[in-house]
Structure formats: C-alpha cells, structure tokens
Amino acid sequence: MSSPALSKLSQKRRQFVLAYVGEAEGNATKAAKLAGYANPRQMGSRLTKVDQVNRAIEEVRVADESPKIMDRARRKALLSRIASGEEADIYIIDKEFQEGAPQLKSRLKAIETLGRMEGDYLERLELSGSTQAVVMFGDNRGKTPKGKR
Q1: Tens-place pLDDT, residues 45-83
Q2: Ramachandran bin of 28, using left for φ above 0, alpha for ψ from -120 to 50, beta for the remaining angles
C-alpha cells in the first residue's frame, strides 16, 4: 500500500499506521503494541496526535475503501451482467446458500435500473390548480392593479 504520507514516516510509525487501520481496528494501544513500541498505551495516545501519522492513517483508509465503492461504470457492468443472465442469484435451499440462474424479476429490475441510469425513461409530472399572473410595465411597478385593492 503506497501512500505519500506513509512513505515519509519511520518504519515503526508505518507499522503503527498499518496496524491501526488493519488488525487493531482503530485501537491505538493495540496498534502500538503490534508495531513493537515498549509503552503501547502511552505511545498509541501520542501517535494519534501527530499530524503526519493522522494524514497517513486517512490516506491508507481512503486507499483501502476506494476499491469497495462502485463507480458508475462498475454499477452499469454489474447490472448488465444481471440483466443478461450472466450473474447468478443466491438462493437458500435447506439452510445453505446456493447459486442459480437469475430470476426474471431480478433481470427486469436490472434492466429498469440501467434504463433510469441512462435517462431512458421520462417521468411526467402533472400539476393542477390555478395561478394568477400580473405583468406590470413602466411606472406601475409595485402598485396594485385596478380592481385588485
């Protein structure tokens, strides 16, 4: 995992950051212990107050999360596979998960979602009621029209 802020840290601090984001799951004392610090409780608390360490933690977290977030192209690709029947559905049979051919309902929903993403469907909005528009020109601006007082 390469991160500009991480590469500027000492080896021990790098180990702390990686442990903090990974195995220690945000526990500074545990991360300091895993990184090999003699006084993990003290050092964990201190390290979380160091700007460079915090920047590295944030960069590593962002880099770790990015592949998990589907961008528009990946969503479209998955929906296309579902719509064409290439992506299997998961079924529970006898309390076990099993893969099988996608149901028509799943395929139709994927097609509908793809259509909406592409703007293929127009949504119509019907308004009802009455409105009154008053247009005034010249010196009449700001004055009430005759008969409306």
Answers
A1: 999 999 999 999 988 888 877 666 677 787 888 888 888
A2: alpha
